[in-house]
């Protein structure tokens, strides 16, 4: 795992946009797991599957449980079945001490949770 942090204007957002080819690389090279992201032969979808990011201001779906929020992308984007997605999501939730937040009781919905908690859940969502 790599975390990119720095002051405002230091290029964090530009870096992630260039890694995902949402912005062109003006000079130099960016390599992810031994793959040059600017190479025309690079499978951009494979890179995007492995590179997750959480915006400073982000939203989870407030009507879904934590588990549902985390399993949504793996099922819709990666084509995982519910069992695969839930297994991975539970592993990720356990790593950050949120496994108990998977059920649908009110405090477990993102809107009812603290900002720090939502950031942790958002980070897990980006890695699922």
Task: Please outline the helices and strands.
Elements: H1 12-19, E1 31-32, E2 35-36, H2 44-50, H3 66-76, H4 82-95, H5 115-127
Helix pairs in contact: 3-4, 3-5
Keywords, separated by commas or semicolons:
2 strands, mainly alpha, 128 residues, globular, 2 domains, single chain, ATP binding
Polypeptide structure, described:
The chain has 128 residues and is mainly α. It folds into two domains: 12-50, no CATH class; 66-127, no CATH class. The protein contains five helices and two strands, in the order H-E-E-H-H-H-H. The chain has helices at residues 12-19, 44-50, 66-76, 82-95, 115-127, and strands at residues 31-32, 35-36. The chain has a two-stranded antiparallel ribbon with strand order 1-2. A hairpin with a 2-residue loop joins strand 1 (31-32) and strand 2 (35-36). Helix 3 packs parallel to helix 5 (115-127). The radius of gyration is 16 Å and the shape is globular. The two termini are 13 Å apart. The model has no long low-confidence stretch (mean pLDDT 78). This is Amino acid permease ATP-binding protein. Keywords: ATP-binding, Nucleotide-binding, Transport. It holds the Pfam family ABC_tran. One of its GO terms (molecular function) is ATP hydrolysis activity. Residues 2-106 form the ABC transporter domain.
